[in-house]
């Protein structure tokens, strides 16, 4: 590894931290940062008042799909899984191992976050339509989190999910913010997983862990969850016009920027799959933007040169902030404050870039055809 590459990895290590024990893994899952997945709660009374009659036909079809539970037998490890773990894991470099562990822990935390949110909504409302939906989605996310946790246990780094639920901080979001953020999270989750699956389908020699063989059917759960929130938002048209268009733009940019910065702390992970982090992220943005036309009247222009420049600047500022934190002391504090102001300014530049306008289709739902 060259000196410059070593320095680059030092920067990455500052951002993702080192995981060497189960205590480290649990501490990382509990920690709240700008880049880490969060746990949420919301206004249950407002959720209870939702009326989805205007999308009833599509809603009932979707409920039948959930009831059919086509992935009930999917999240089971086969004999080949164990053999591949034994064969492939010793081949990972220490740096690559850290990036992969970071990927697993953040993915598990994100899946478990959905499980907790959906289950809490289910327990605190009486609305039969929303209650039924939340029951199904909590079921799916519980399977996802449990399956990832099994892979962490291969490293003796399993997460105590009960303890995580009790100790991680919760953020309150109004229902509309839950809809925007969770819709995007589910759809971008689909786009991430299917992009990885298709790449490794073309290049099976780059599949360095067996969990990626599960991603195609897995991400269809994520896709359907996003469809659910699309139907809820289309049933509440006031969420998709007026000042709420500004909130939609904010959440799209926040989700994209968070993903971009986080992914650029894991360059080895993407290189091992045959990607460059930037190319991978823009493919995920492209798929997510295409899907989101089903529900969002506005779309950010991911090909605008200033969009790309601002994304790169946010990565630089994230690295600089991590270095300042490591430095500590008064100078480190001042440098962190400076980078934070610059990051807000850069995000503001992103926010005021021109957006594209979309006419919403009469039929809400789309198919996972990517």
Comma- or semicolon-separated keywords:
two-stranded antiparallel ribbon; 15 helices; 370 residues; mainly alpha; 3% strand; two-stranded parallel sheet
Tell me the fraction of residues in β-strands, as a range.
Answer: under 5%
Secondary structure class reads mainly alpha
Terminal CA distance reads 36 Å
Give, in order, the helices and strands.
HHEHHHHHHEHHHHHEHHE
Radius of gyration, Cα only, in angstroms?
A: 20 Å
The pLDDT mean sits at 90
User: Regions with pLDDT < 50 over 5+ consecutive residues?
Assistant: 1-14
What is the total tally of β strands? 4
Report on this model:
- The protein has 15 helices and 4 strands.
- The protein has a domain at about 10-235 and about 255-275.
- Helix 6 (about 95-125) packs antiparallel against helix 7 and helix 9 (about 175-200) runs parallel beside helix 11.
- The chain has about 375 residues and is mostly helical.
Summarize the structure.
The protein has 370 residues and is mainly alpha-helical. The protein has a domain at 11-237 and 257-275.
SSE blueprint:
Layout: H1 3-16, H2 22-30, E1 39-41, H3 44-48, H4 56-68, H5 79-88, H6 94-124, H7 128-153, H8 161-167, E2 170-172, H9 175-202, H10 215-235, H11 244-263, H12 267-272, H13 277-292, E3 298-300, H14 305-327, H15 329-351, E4 355-357
Parallel strand pairs: 1-2
Antiparallel strand pairs: 3-4
Helix pairs in contact: 1-14, 2-6, 6-7, 7-10, 9-10, 9-11, 9-13, 11-13, 11-14, 14-15
